[in-house]
């Protein structure tokens, strides 16, 4: 890991931003970086069925009350939650190794035009969240209008 590594480059940008307020507009906020990391680290599958879409997201260690499923403006489905570190329950116990993921889990999906955003449902079982978004019925084809011809 030399001086040209991406870590040093990012650190250099942050330090420059602190010295020069004008360049801080180009550096993403801490919340943006945190959300981007959470989205990159949250695996998901998307399935399309004849009548619905299914979004399957791993949410390990979260109870259903800790998970938020929202439909935002512009048909964006937002799935989020946060797994917090367990408190030390036993006196004198300390972590020797910590590998399980803690922190924010989040994914955003842009829903297609035919998604029924008013009928979204979500079920969490064994750490796997399944969000079902029904499809709207296709519009009926317009039938030609028959006009009665009257004799004058």
From TrEMBL:
Pfam families: HSP20. Its main location: cytoplasm. This is 17.6 kDa class II heat shock protein. It comes from the Eukaryota. One of its GO terms (cellular component) is cytoplasm. Belongs to the small heat shock protein (HSP20) family. InterPro entries: A-crystallin/Hsp20_dom, HSP20-like_chaperone, Small_HSP. PANTHER family: HEAT-SHOCK PROTEIN 20 FAMILY MEMBER. It is found in: Cytoplasm. The keyword Lipid biosynthesis does not apply. The keyword Ribosomal protein does not apply. Residues 35-152 form the SHSP domain. Gene3D superfamilies: 2.60.40.790. Keywords: Cytoplasm, Stress response. GO terms for biological process: response to stress.
């Amino acid at each position: 890991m030399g001086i040209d590594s991406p870590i040093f480059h990012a650190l250099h940008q942050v330090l420059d931003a602190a010295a020069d307020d004008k360049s801080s507009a180009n550096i993403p906020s801490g919340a943006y970086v945190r959300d981007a990391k959470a989205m990159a680290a949250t695996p998901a599958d998307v399935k399309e069925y004849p009548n619905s879409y299914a979004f399957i997201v791993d949410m390990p260690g979260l109870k259903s009350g800790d998970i938020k499923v929202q439909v935002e403006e512009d048909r964006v489905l937002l799935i989020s939650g946060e797994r917090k570190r367990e408190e030390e329950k036993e006196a004198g116990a300390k972590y020797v190794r910590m590998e399980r993921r803690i922190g924010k889990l989040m994914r955003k999906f842009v829903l297609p035009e035919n998604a029924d955003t008013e009928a979204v449902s979500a079920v969490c079982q064994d750490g796997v969240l399944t969000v079902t978004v029904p499809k709207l019925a296709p519009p009926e084809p317009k039938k030609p209008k028959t006009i009665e011809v009257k004799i004058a």
